[in-house]
Amino acid sequence: MPLDLAIILPTLNERGNLAPLVDRIDAAMGDTAWEVIIVDDDSRDGTADEARALAVSDPRVRVIQRIGRRGLASAAIEGFCATAAPFVAVMDADHQHDPALLPAMLASLKAGEAEVCVASRFMQGASTANWAAPERERLSAFANRVARRLTGVALSDPMSGYFMLSAAHARALVPRLSGIGFKILLDLLATSDRPLRVKELPLQFAARREGESKLDRAVLFDFLAGLYDKTLGRVIPTRFALFGTVGALGVVVHFAVLTSLLFSFGERFALAQTAAVLVAMSFNFWLNNWLTYRDKRLKGWGALLRGWLGFCATCAVGAFANVAIATFLEGQGLFWAFAALAGIVVGSVWNYALSSRFVWGRF
């Protein structure tokens, strides 16, 4: 039968969930011709290898193993572009999304009832009783209110991660999608030149079958980054804006340390400025790793230590220029606060350029 539907599963450490989920999809889809595209972010647990093992016996399973690229939104975009199916669905691989909804979603799109079908956690008839994550529920409710204002689409759950639309429509929007964060549906709805016709279906949101959630408290920052990208991202690149935001917080840390040292040890400005630079630089590394480069986050003590050393090394020239210029200006009579700020500005451009490439990027 002609291929009808591609089901895109962005994965990170979901090895044990794949085979049971493919079985559930097979049982739900009946005679419909479908394929599963597993887009794996180079999982350490061998998810891509497990997907390849499934594909040996079931040609409907396909694998994209991404090296050096991470993030749910960008994974979905790669899936959109990798299939010949006329319709595409995005769902999680952790069994929280029920495959039984797929046939009804596909039927609605084929009948022209909607341009996008969304599985909603919050509409009448839906349930999150098995979610057991009240903090995440409150965050989703807040994000949904903001998303409705941004997209102009009256949905109960515009932040849903389970939806379906035509592949041609998705690919038409791809060049203008940000690919940032984890809520690709919000990106699609906000990018469209007109409000899309959407139909929601009630979802019984289940508990994760096994493994751990990949979403932590930085998820709110991810959401705000996505909103920024859709509004001001074309003026100032989002990653640079995030790096600058962290840098601004680093300025606060820098001045706090500098002020404390000056008032504690007197007029030894050069020593105090040097110490403030080192503390602020370490703070910036930690916060950038947690937020700005969340999709490329370094984990484990070894990776963090190497990352911190690399960050310090790539920022060494910027730090030297920072201290030298600030010390020179202070020696010329400029008020110490303005001298320190001038040093910070000079070092920041260097810090962003090299750290983006050599700490969280690839040579």
Description:
With 363 residues, this protein is an alpha/beta fold. It has two domains: 5-228, Spore Coat Polysaccharide Biosynthesis Protein SpsA, Chain A, CATH 3.90.550; 238-358, no CATH class. The protein has 13 helices and seven strands. The protein has helices at residues 15-29, 47-57, 72-80, 102-110, 134-151, 167-173, 184-191, 219-231, 238-265, 269-292, 301-314, 316-331, 336-358; strands spanning 5-11, 34-40, 61-65, 87-90, 116-120, 163-166, 198-202. A seven-stranded mixed sheet has the order 3-2-1-4-6-5-7, with helices on both faces. The longest helix is centred in the C-terminal third of the chain and has 28 residues, at 238-265.
CATH architecture of the largest domain: Alpha-Beta Complex
**Can you tell me the number of structural domains?**
2
CATH homologous superfamily assignment of the largest domain: Spore Coat Polysaccharide Biosynthesis Protein SpsA, Chain A
Question: What is the residue-averaged pLDDT?
Answer: 83
Structural class by sheet pairing and helices: alpha/beta
| Helix run count | 13
CATH class of the largest domain: Alpha Beta
Condensed summary:
The chain has helices spanning 15-29, 47-57, 72-80, 102-110, 134-151, 167-173, 184-191, 219-231, 238-265, 269-292, 301-314, 316-331, 336-358, and strands at residues 5-11, 34-40, 61-65, 87-90, 116-120, 163-166, 198-202. It is of the alpha/beta class.
